Amino acid sequence: xxxxxxxxxxxxxxxxxxxxxxxxxxxxxxxxxxxxxxxxxxxxxxxxxxxxxxxxxxxxxxxxxxxxxxxxxxxxxxxxxxxxxxxxxxxxxxxxxxxxxxxxxxxxxxxxxxxxxxxxxxxxxxxxxxxxxxxxxxxxxxxxxxxxxxxxxxxxxxxxxxxxxxxxxxxxxxxxxxxxxxxxxxxxxxxxxxxxxxxxxxxxxxxxxxxxxxxxxxxxxxxxxxxxxxxxxxxxxxxxxxxxxxxxxxxxxxxxxxxxxxxxxxxxxxxxxxxxxxxxxxxxxxxxxxxxxxxxxxxxxxxxxxxxxxxxxxxxxxxxxxxxxxxxxxxxxxxxxxxxxxxxxxxxxxxxxxxxxxxxxxxxxxxxxxxxxxxxxxxxxxxxxxxxxxxxxxxxxxxxxxxxxxxxxxxxxxxxxxxxxxxxxxxxxxxxxxxxxxxxxxxxxxxxxxxxxxxxxxxxxxxxxxxxxxxxxxxxxxxxxxxxx
Length: 485
Ligand SMILES: NC(=O)C[C@H](N)C(=O)O
What we know:
This protein is of the alpha/beta class. It has helices at 8-17, 22-40, 50-60, 103-110, 153-160, 177-183, 217-227, 271-286, 302-317, 336-347, 350-363, 368-391, 415-419, 426-431, 459-471, and strands spanning 43-46, 72-76, 114-119, 166-171, 186-189, 209-214, 257-261, 290-294, 395-399, 435-443, 446-454.
């Protein structure tokens, strides 16, 4: 059993008709995950109570109005849960159990979704390959020798492998969109503030957003319907009205003004990726949209600004992991200072330590103006670049990542090689805009992702344009290597 060729509505219909119960579906889902887990390594924890929870939904009756009722889903292991451990893929949080659920977890459960397990990530969401997990490297279902992207690699892989129809990830600089691109699924990074961050383990608090992975654009809209909205626990969550994100899916792109930034088809982008995006632009024109080349002149400084700002925020957010309040504690410390040093030296992996040091340096008295302040100024210039383009365009299109999935181990020597993966996703986080990746082609058997970027809170426009593209292409219907097993 897998979910290829199925979507939320079709499975929901089976549940409503009684063709299958949520408990049966959940058992099949768990069995399928267990069978593929030795190859895929997408999960860090399974929900022991999943079947019991599904039985409870069956007993209460599947809600015919809610496609998530009784539906198995997965979540990234940096979203806290009371009934499963939360590690953020760090040794620091080995065996950590939260006393509360993340708001998005509460919302999924309120909708009747069955959270089957928690997916692997780069430690504390720092990375673009899941190789930085302290526990395991998730594989890409399209080619098990390649990475699924990151940091939400487990959430992307489980949907791509047909194990669940939906999962949640988080995106600070590309962590939903880049893995979606690498694994051939749909991934949405909502507008900053659209989804509550309460219970998401903080990395870069002015960037982090939770968002869904799905096989189709419509399914993605359903998931965002379920998780969006203001939350009193998160002061940065917006009180903007939450529309029905499925409402405009069939409106098409006739008359839509799409911008294609020249910088997004420049040096460093693989030729096959550029070709796929040019073909997608033609497709949009054929569907009645106009596509115009524009410029985002400061986008190229985005990666530098991000690594100063996000690392600064990380250095502050990760201060709490001191060996006393949470998780891991070094066993043989001589005194308090030694406890801090030993705990943090052995509890954090190298990439996390690198970011903490980078951030601490950028925030230090002698460097603040030179790095942090400069980066904040670049952030403003990038926001202004987008504002200018959006004065006379409805959305921006381009590649999600410069390449398709790379080999495991390929980018492990120079950390900055990994950082440039996010060159086209990071500006979107710097500006707080919504961005979505969807399948737009293949190169040597590996998926290529297209990124659509919208105005603040215009996720509906992205879904509308994404759905129009998906309806006229079949990239989302291909089955990965692992699916043949
Ligand atoms: N968290 C993210 O969005 C991933 C990004 N590649 C980073 O390492 O910061």
